[in-house]
Specification:
CATH superfamily of the largest domain: Ribonuclease Z/Hydroxyacylglutathione hydrolase-like
CATH architecture of the largest domain: 4-Layer Sandwich
Shape: globular
Number of strands: 22
Distance between the termini: 11 Å
Structural class: alpha/beta
Strand content: 15-25%
CATH class of the largest domain: Alpha Beta
Radius of gyration: 22 Å
Strand order of the largest sheet: 6-5-4-3-2-1-22
Number of helices: 15
Number of domains: 2
Length: about 475
């Protein structure tokens, strides 16, 4: 029986994770994510997805891994989407939010006439997203389940996001194991557990986002305290474009810690993202799945009820989760120093654009990036020193301070990747590097070949690899 692998996304680029595993006549798609960043990548979102897919395996709920599931359903897919329980809950939130934003962006473009397309269309709708959620099949960690004749999948905790996983796929014929790495988490970080060690697999798909660099030392609290304190002294706002999944929770953890240590003033902290509000509730309700430190902190609040402990987790002295567009506008117009956390993390859409639009021209403010900024995104443009950025058809001057650090990233750096690979007792027959830009990917490939002597490939878009 032939077994082949074709990457339809995250092939020598960071976004759009999509890998087709063909086992005989059966087609299994691992992840179905959106492309983000450069226009040439985003245009791929409109291309037809692989035909004949029977089953989807979803490693986690980030948009670049699940964001085209509604479009796959729109195209006619009616099979099951296997994932962990937390991923199922988060993916529902992410897909619904993405569908709503797609429709809002199309409506705004048509109303203001700044789209080249007449009319501008939504990539998919909220209804498409709702249909996709009906196909989600939650599965517990470390529990093999059949996904096709002679094929099983088992999810292992990847430590990257609540519910994130490595998908270990076993093909009975030939006793072959393919490990789809999803995104690899980090070691010794708050909120999330360390990634699960894996001892062997015949084929490994591994991300390479930070394959050519190391994260700065674990001084997140010191650097964050400095940015917040200096901005508050200028009577400005700290505006943080943040991924609604995972990053918001870690930011609230650090801000709450700094407040308790009296290292920053107690400022209003606004979480302005409808999706982040729902995600925060999921994190608070699943404290037992997070880092033991979080569970211990909750346990120490023993005199409180379970609901009270859940609400206390990921909180600050003056936390306010913004609900309505009217509240969001009031935050934008306020002159009071504050911390504003809003999606999207690469400033490609969502409510953060409105905060940036009013905040970028004011030199008292600080725009703080705490996650990866893909080539071609507005976040990358601002981080790299642009003097203007275009939003909703207008040129916005950038006079605010801009700060950036990757030490809060949920992606493993080069040393952490090598540390995780060191758990293998037998070298894989093939390691495929995905989810990375060419520079980091090629650097990591050379390092693995040099230090571990493994066979490494970097698949190109649409390349078919026999396994």
């Amino acid at each position: 029986m032939s077994v082949t692998l074709t990457s339809y996304g995250a092939a020598r680029t960071v976004t759009g994770s999509k890998h087709l595993l063909e086992v005989g006549d059966h087609k299994i798609l691992v992840d179905c994510g959106q492309f983000q960043g450069l226009r040439e990548l985003r245009d791929r979102n409109w291309q037809p997805l692989p035909m004949g897919v029977e089953t989807v395996i979803l490693t986690h709920a980030h948009l670049d891994h699940c964001g085209l599931l509604p479009r796959l359903v729109q195209q006619g897919f009616r099979g099951r989407i296997f994932c962990t329980q937390a991923t199922a809950q988060l993916a529902k939130i992410v897909m619904a939010d993405a569908g709503r934003l797609q429709e809002e962006d199309a409506e705004r473009a048509n109303r203001k006439g700044y789209s080249k397309h007449k009319p501008a269309l939504a990539l998919f709708t909220e209804d498409d997203a709702a249909r996709a959620t009906l196909l989600l099949q939650p599965v517990g960690y470390d529990r093999p389940v059949p996904v096709a004749p002679g094929v099983t999948v088992e999810f292992l905790n990847a430590g990257h996001l609540l519910g994130s996983s490595f998908a270990r796929v076993r093909v009975d014929e030939g006793n072959r194991t393919i490990l789809f790495g999803g995104d690899l988490g980090r070691y010794g970080r708050p909120v999330l557990p360390d990634p699960t060690p894996v001892a062997e697999a015949d084929v490994v798909l591994l991300e390479s986002t930070y394959g050519d660099r190391l994260h700065e030392g674990h001084d997140d609290e010191a650097r964050l305290a400095q940015v917040i304190s200096e901005t508050a002294a200028r009577k400005g706002k700290v505006i943080i474009p943040s991924f609604a999944l995972g990053r918001v929770e870690e930011l609230l953890y650090w801000i709450g810690l700094l407040e308790s240590q009296k290292r920053i003033p107690e400022l209003p902290v606004y979480v302005d993202s409808p999706m982040a509000r729902e995600v925060l509730q999921e994190y608070r309700s699943r404290l037992n799945e997070l880092d033991p430190e979080i569970a211990q902190m909750a346990a120490q609040a023993g005199s409180h009820t379970r609901r009270e402990r859940d609400v206390m987790a990921f909180s600050t002295a003056r936390l306010r989760v913004v609900s309505s567009p009217k509240e969001s506008q009031a935050v934008q117009e306020s002159k009071e120093p504050a911390i504003i956390i809003s999606a999207s993390g690469m400033a490609t859409g969502g409510r953060v654009l409105h905060h940036l639009r009013t905040g970028l021209p004011d030199e008292r403010n600080t725009i703080l990036f705490v996650g990866y900024q893909s080539i071609g995104t507005r976040g990358r443009q601002i981080r790299d020193g642009a003097k203007f950025t275009r939003m909703h058809g207008e040129e916005i001057p950038i006079r605010a301070q801009v700060a950036s650090f990757d030490s809060m990233s949920a992606h493993a750096d080069a040393n952490e990747i090598m540390r995780w690979l060191s758990n293998f007792t037998t070298p894989p027959k093939l390691t495929c590097l995905v989810h990375g830009e060419p520079g980091p990917m090629d650097t990591l490939k050379a390092r693995i070949e040099r230090e571990l002597k493994w066979t490494v490939k970097t698949p190109t878009q649409g390349e078919r690899i026999p396994l």
